[in-house]
Amino acid sequence: MANLHKDVVAPYMHVVKSFMDDDSPNPYKLRTTLLFFRGRTVRKAEGKVRAKLEKILKGYSDVHFEAGYATGEGINASTQGMRTSRFCLHPAGDTPSSNRLFDAIVSHCVPVIVSDHIELPFESELDYSKFSVFFSVKEALVPGYMVEELRKIPEERWVEMWGRLKEIAHHYEYEYPPKKDDAVNMVWKEVRSKVPAERLAVNRNRRLKVHDWW
Question: Which residues are in the Exostosin GT47 domain (predicted)?
């Protein structure tokens, strides 16, 4: 579990290629799949939610839920699926986060995050509620609830989130050499923001003669 007082949450490198020419005047209509997921469905711990979601989401004509692996063919299938879907499902795996979230971001597919214990990169700079949808595990496992909630999101709201994804996707790119506000630059900004509080804690600890009351 991350300690946000001192830890920095860095994004995984995305696996799919970034969607560079996503400039359709009507992206909502072009993306005909409501919700997309492709990945391993047999996981440990909190990742067991995936198997339950697979059963719940079967039978919806506008939901694509498929078991798959990160082979070359699988990555191509995920790329195509994410680019033609409005929402991309991100349930927890063996860890709360995975590269699937960042694949969705660079594909401009609105992430649907299902987790009770997730920390997200650059949250001091970015408001994830502007470009993601969140469900608790309990909510997601109610049959029909998540799909109906996603269907209720108006086209105008989805287009706003899609547009915001296009604006912030560069923050999740690991460039070489690093570029302004890319992932490397953003991580160092987060590190710098932690230094004063850590220095204060170290200096206080050196002079205290009793247990720290903070």
Answer: 5-147
